[in-house]
Write a structure and sequence with these properties.
single chain; 356 residues; alpha/beta; TIM Barrel; 38% helix; manganese ion binding; EC 4.2.1.8; manganese; Man_deHydtase; Xyl_isomerase-like_sf
């Protein structure tokens, strides 16, 4: 397992010099934040990103995310143009050594929370979802998220794209779950041959939360959905990101069992490791990574990864803001760094036990 840290580029208040001090973390999960969704990522900018990362002793093997234009998700007549742009981005990323692209196929919103800075009893702040607090009007939710983002870009909530929120919702009016699956298949059939050619594995991220909201379809919620997606294009390059938190938000999902079924197939190059705490039905909040702090058994999750011979990339995810840090919600330095230390400790103990 190769531990990594998500970095949002030169404008991230967390620096590469900060991340270098996190033990056993030599991989950066990178992205370009200034490219409009659907445009080609220029090779020169990708190389600049790689060179910045390499200068601090890190590798850039995983990109999260090359977001997918809504025309592809809705099956609009213009989708082929955006797919061609995506293919060129794949080729450009391969030229600098990237081997994994984490992406999602969620309509409009990449993830949804009803509170970005929910105060916990220990004095920290966390992201929280409470279905009863979800406004009926998605514009109200967007305004609430924008007012709580600490003036930092939130992936999936780009103001430029969501400025046309009503038009976006109109474009999805007649898109059913089966339509969205068919549009994913169309996309994958176009790009996977290129991925096989250049050696980049696509890793789709689960829906977050794994339920339909605002009437939008969701297609990666559980093990059954994963099997359906895997069958769309029978190739290991049609892979998955297993996000323990997103899948764990549905209490019916057995996350260790999902890991044991899919990791051995070679289709899981990337894992997001986080814990969440269920407060009530359809109410959960991000917690510290330790099993005792949330509702997921992180030891069982790490054991399942070890037993499945997972050798891909992993990162701690969705940390709280602690010790007065006023960072990007979910992506502060301190709690994610502590999470990495905890996860590495579990991994070391499991490995040593297995070798005795």
């Amino acid at each position: 397992m190769k531990m990594s840290f998500r970095w949002f580029g030169p404008n991230d208040p967390i620096t590469l010099a900060d991340i270098r001090q996190v033990p056993k973390t030599r991989q950066i999960v990178g992205m370009l934040t200034d490219i409009p969704v659907g445009d080609v990522w220029p090779l020169t900018e990708i190389k600049q990103l790689r060179d910045q990362i390499n200068a601090y002793g890190f590798e850039l093997k995983v990109i999260e995310s090359v977001n997918i234009h809504d025309a592809i998700k809705t099956g609009a007549p213009t989708r082929d143009r955006y797919i061609e742009n995506y293919i060129q981005t794949i080729r450009n990323l391969a030229k600098v050594g990237v081997t994994v692209i984490c992406y999602n196929f969620m309509p409009i919103f990449d993830w949804i929370r009803t509170d970005l800075n929910y105060p916990l009893t220990d004095g920290s702040q966390s992201m929280r979802f409470d279905l009863s607090k979800l406004p009926r009007d998605p514009q109200v939710l967007f305004n609430r998220i924008k007012a709580s983002d600490n003036n930092l870009m939130l992936p999936g909530w780009e103001p430029e794209r969501l400025a046309q929120l009503k038009q976006l919702f109109k474009s999805y009016e007649n898109v059913s779950e089966s339509d969205l699956v068919a549009n994913l298949k169309y996309f994958l059939k176009a790009i996977i041959p290129v991925c096989e050619e250049v050696g980049i594995q696509m890793a789709i991220h689960p829906d977050d939360p794994p339920m339909s909201l605002f009437g939008l379809p969701r297609i990666y919620k559980n093990l059954s959905d994963m099997k359906r997606i895997a069958a769309l294009v029978d190739s290991p390059y049609n892979g998955f990101t297993i996000c323990t938190g997103s899948l764990g938000e549905n209490t019916a999902n057995d996350v260790p069992a999902i890991i044991r079924e899919f990791v051995p197939t070679g289709r899981v190059p990337f894992v997001h490791l986080r814990n969440i705490k269920h407060i009530a039905p359809n109410v959960f909040q991000e917690s510290a990574h330790e099993s005792s702090e949330g509702s997921l058994d992180m030891y069982a999750i790490m054991q399942a990864l070890h037993d499945s011979d997972f050798n891909g990339y992993a990162r701690s995810d969705h940390g709280r803001n602690i010790w007065g840090e006023n960072g990007r919600p979910g992506y502060g330095l301190y709690d994610r760094a502590m999470g990495i230390s905890y996860l590495n400790g579990l991994w070391e103990a499991i490995q040593k036990k297995a070798n005795n």
